[in-house]
UniProtKB/TrEMBL annotation, chains A, B:
One of its GO terms (molecular function) is DNA-binding transcription factor activity. SUPFAM superfamilies: Homeodomain-like, Tetracyclin repressor-like, C-terminal domain. The keyword Chloroplast does not apply. This is TetR family transcriptional regulator. It comes from the Bacteria. The keyword Metal-binding does not apply. Signal peptide: none annotated.
Amino acid sequence: MSLTESHPPQEAPVRGRPRSEAVERAIIEGTMKLLEDGVPLAELSIERIARTAGVGKATIYRRWRGKEELFVDVVRSTEPPDPELPGTSMRDDLVVLLEALRRRGLANRTSAILHNVHVQMKTSPRIWAAYHNAVIAPRRRLGLEVLRRGQQDGELRTDVDLELVHDIVFGPMLTRSLLHPDAELPEGLAEQLVDTLLEGLRPVSSPMV
Amino acid sequence: MSLTESHPPQEAPVRGRPRSEAVERAIIEGTMKLLEDGVPLAELSIERIARTAGVGKATIYRRWRGKEELFVDVVRSTEPPDPELPGTSMRDDLVVLLEALRRRGLANRTSAILHNVHVQMKTSPRIWAAYHNAVIAPRRRLGLEVLRRGQQDGELRTDVDLELVHDIVFGPMLTRSLLHPDAELPEGLAEQLVDTLLEGLRPVSSPMV
């Protein structure tokens, strides 16, 4: 148990939770290993994870309130990190957000485990709610904030509900990544989407006519 | 077994398969009843369905090649039927297709069983593939055909890949229905989506400036 008490010297305890990156990594990797071995999410217990990671159950509970929170971090550890926004324009920020979504879609496709975990998460309402609150909801808020700034700066029309604009911008990429596993996610898709959406689907009428 | 041999007089045997709507209905309703009672899709056997519906196993196999095909029809029986296209314009056809998607989304939300069956289907690759081939792929082909006609008639720009336009048009509604169970699906959403997408997200520049 002494391992769990050793803080890296540069790190102050956060919210009273003793931290040690090596231990956290061991626990997350132990969970991944069990998932890779085909253990269904529903059958993974904190006890089994503790045994696989070579730590005590208390060591896990000191870091995560429960199985749900731990899984959210496991899934996050396999996904590319969230990007920095350039802040140069709404258009550029949206391209960066959509590009991150495209990359997560690709990661989800190439990693059978990650895909499998996502599918299993959806069948567990508690784990799905934890993932939604920790990961999806903040992403949505960020997207809405970028769109709101776009309206203020005159880049986005103001006569359409922002929630709807959000789904218009992110829906096509989400559909491709999550609902059509065979659809292409080529490089440049993020730019193409944003520019097509800004311009609209109507043919550009020739100014000569 | 004699019940299964009785054809309604107005109906000729189709593709050599003896049909009786009453028997089919009993089998589909029997399957629904088992699902409503909480039996997981994976545990439903043709034998159990036959017993619940009061028919022999052969009666089921005469109508469906297997469990997968039967489930597809069970799911279809709970969904609103696919709509007729008005054919007056691409815009009108897209509105009708999106409105049907909105109604299916609402049906999926209000019926806990239907929702549950959808989630379970996704965890069974064979059932999902059968549903995809029988239901989703034809819908996608129809949407692409409407868009292709729109390009021919000058309603849709021709410089964007049709597959991408398809996801731009249907992605937002799919995202709302399937990925954000809390998002609103209000009346008029189909029209609003199509018109916003055709026009684009850029502010309409005032002709006076």
